[in-house]
Amino acid sequence: MPYKQVILVREDLKLPKGKLAAQVAHATIAATNNSNQTILKKWMQEGMKKIVLKVKDENELLDYQNKAKSEKLVASLITDAGHTIVEPGTVTCLGIGPDEDSKIDKVTSKLKML
After folding, report:
1. DSSP string, 30-99
2. What is the pLDDT of residues 54-71, one digit of tens each?
3. Residue range 3-113 in CATH 3.40.1490.10
């Protein structure tokens, strides 16, 4: 059974590439740390597939967080400390999973890649 992790990024923030990469890294680490150990091991054995998708704004991101949680998926919201580009407390991205591809696709399949 294939596993993956998905990171949703706010398109409206127009983050520079370096800042974007750091926020995605925060999301993948936070979601991984909150994951079921059995699922985590399977995902790691398969190569730790990750997909970065875009959402238009904070409201859409929070909507997907709720959808993921309602499907019993790990959903780790990232809020920036505000040391560089954005204001403190800015919600930047959401890490979902890792979990079974089909479970994550049920929530995120309509989104486009970043």
Report:
1. HHHHTS-HHHHHHHHHTT--EEEEEESSHHHHHHHHHHHHHTT--EEEEE---SSSS-TT-EEEEEEEEE
2. 999 999 999 999 999 999
3. yes
